[in-house]
Amino acid sequence: MSSSLNPILFLVGILGLAVVLNAVRMFIRRSPGYTLLKLLGHVIVALTISLCAFYPQIAKDVTRILGFGENLNTLIFVGFITLFLTQYAQAKTIEKLDKKITEIAQKVALHRS
Amino acid sequence: MSTLVTMIAAYNEAPAIAQVLASIRQLYPEAIIVVVDDGSTDNTAEVCRCYSSHVLSHPVNCGKTASLMTGITYLQRQELSDDATVVFLDADGQHDPREIQRFATLLRQDRRLEVVLGVRSLSRQTPLVNRWGRLVGDLVTSLYTGDWYSDSQCGFRAVRWGFLKHLSLVGSSYAVETQLLYELSRRNSHFTTLKVSDIYTSYSRSKAHKQGLLQGLRTLVSFIH
Fold first, then answer.
1. Interface pTM (ipTM) of the complex?
2. CB–CB of B133/B76 below 8 Å?
3. Which of B56, B63, B172 sits opposite A109 (nearest CB)?
């Protein structure tokens, strides 16, 4: 942890940890609709935020490791990757649904014949 | 004489399909006419039922591949002999029903043949976009099958039932033409080509292009995917 941690960043880090603890609590209590996937999603996002808040240098270190010159480039790159993955996941879902609709339509046509 | 089956996939073709079906019925009274209405929003299905008792209707539009697969699945329940000839043609009058006999004759004369592929003659009538579309379609097909087929996207073709009954078509778009050729190459089956007329009526020209350049690219994407 940086010795000259910004108070606001510290608060953000604490909030992030609180979100993680809350997420774990909801999962343990088996809150309705709170799946393992949701837990993982919340924990990953909140932990990342906390990590960046407590260790602001981490963004620069990641940037250096990946070979980018500026933090902004890293953010943009990560943003594009995230968008691409989201689009790909949606396309796969649509494809599955399209296939199911086609199968149902074929069955209906054959049943009515 | 072996059974003759004609199979047509139709989507909103009420203006043209009546003439196609009437011609087939008049020329080949004993033929089984199977029409798959692919979720038409006009009265295509009702028109077809005036000429055929083998009309299947999708509740929603699913594409030509799915339509023909529905038709093939329907035929599997009809207990056809392996020698039966199934002729595919378009619903919009682009193919001349009088040429069906030529397909059937070729299959009857040469028992080794499994498929007869129609190859449309390019004429001055053929729109430029269709010429380019054919070229793209042929290139895509050659990449996919490893063999060169002229006019690979022509829907006018005849297949022996013994070959067709084992076919499983996937996808929903116009990729059906290429899938059949892929099976032909994969099984190393005997086939021949037959020059057929390419009829362009004002009706068919007015429709959005079925096999234009964009459709060829979409077919390519669907195969890659």
1. 0.81
2. no
3. B56
